[in-house]
Structures
1.
Amino acid sequence: MKRDVVIVGAGPAGIFTALEMLRKGTGQKITIIEKGMSIEKRRCPKNITHKCENCKPYCHITTGFSGAGAFSDGKLSLSSEVGGDLPLLIGDDIVQDTIDYTDKIYLEFGADDKVEGINCNEEVKQIRKRAIKAGLKLVDCPIRHLGTEKAQDLYLAIEHYLLDNGVELMFGYECSDLLLEADVCKGIIANDKHGDITIEAKHTIIATGRRGADWLEKICGEHSIAHQPGTVDIGVRVEVRNEVMEKVNEVLYESKLIGYPRPFKNKVRTFCQNPGGFVSQENYDNDLAVVNGHSFKDFKSDNTNVAILCSHNFSSPFNQPIAYAQKVGELTNMLGAGHILVQRFGDILDGKRTWPKELAQSNVRPTLPDAVAGDITAALPYRSMVNIINFIQAVDEVVPGFASNETLLYSPELKFYSNRVKMDNKFNTNVKGLHCLGDSSGWTRGLMMASVMGVLMGRTLIDEENDK
């Protein structure tokens, strides 16, 4: 097979590369390969069984068209301050302008026109004042909330648009290797249940998302693609009653707080806040169960959940942060017999595990029913755990009640952003014809910024096409 552009991964970065090329009138042949299924064929059996079935060969929540986007909370962060380090690579102004442009595309495909977290200046000032007093930084970012069920409809519309306009979508195919001649990438080798195929292309784009971060790290090592170890986030998913978060949910929808608690002063932050949301489980290829959260547009719970993530960097002599985080996750899964662990904050402070009977008596009822009550401190590293405890107590000064005895902590919450690929501002790697986008590249975190990277990649390829 010969194509002009082959894209590995049908997540937001890959999707918006193709989408922008179509919008600019490309004549190039574009193929996207995706390990998972199309939107209409993605099914999570937990909706029926109410427990994780550990689906094989992959988890339908994280794999398939739009990646985790279609089954996530579907929040679009509309500020260049949020979503990774892409502004360091291409400049803050370019990123913000492209966010505004990309947001309009989402609106065209059915996103809600309501933006959360605006027009509440006085209330925001009061929250910021409490954050400063607690030693935290508040990043008040406008949010467009798609909602889990609405996100699926939106990405289905994009999928049909790509197909109707000639983009080839190959589902059930996994990239096994790159085709390289000297320092030039000539395409990929992919496989499905029938065997290997070769796709030759002038431009190869790797956009495999967080799920593909460890695979991309291996590929970079094998083919001398310039990269450096990045940051890995280890943390927990915190769940409280909506009443505790009521004002923050109303004013900001998502309160992005950042701190550097003593004694270690690692960066700790909140991430992916879900008012009236649900805690969920995701499974990776190596049977690693990790916790996440989402919220529907219309169907709400009595709780709010939010991730608290502690950033870790490794360079010498150990430089494999993804492997480190996986080991932490494996140990936590071992204690939970393959399930997510949950523990009350008060029990952590008291140095005891949580028992199912105690959960049943609490005001905060878990929205992840098959989470196992236990002791997450027996698995999380001491440094991470101390950072998380001190950060939760600081957040309590901003949101009174956040550090109550009954606050629930689920583990493990892991974000694999590790492998930062070295590229120029046109997303060219040191291997000619090879580009890396989205969360797997180490430069973005989340739907909007990955989409922005795709838009910019599409423009670069169109400019090259027009110059010929």
2.
Amino acid sequence: MGKKIGILLENRFIEREVFYYQSFFEAEGFEPVFLTRLWGQPRLTFKGLEYQAEASADHSFEELTDADLAEYAAVIVPAGYVADYLLYTEKPGDVSPAGLFLQRVMAKPEIIKGFICHSLWLAGPIKESFTGRRVTCHNNILSHVRNAGLEYIDQDVVVDGDLITARTGGHHGIFAKTILANLK
């Protein structure tokens, strides 16, 4: 099992959630790694939603090879507007680079996938990777989740094999602890 925890990052992330993952998984012996679309830059800095706190990423999910992915125990898509920003693609109708990355990750059962709150927005364009899976999500995206072929379960956290989902960003603590329990 890999020792890295990939945390996707973009603007308007929820600071207390993302920073919690960073410190929680590090304390448990994992290496948290912020992953993003770098747009050809060596590093990008993003601002949080609530406090305008900054977090930087210098790892591009677009450049990860299968050998690189083998170093990851889990990949988490946080709450806030991270998924919304990561849906962007230059050509309307194409799957975004983040979607293509998550399609690859979803095909690897040895990697735990974590989606919380609104992050399942990213499932729509790659619904074949999610169809039939059991999840929870924020109430505001319930129709998106169902249209992506997922089965909604009315719980705060849902575990469906290698896919772990949580209802809101406020559930980040129990979400992280559930991911950790499934890594062991």
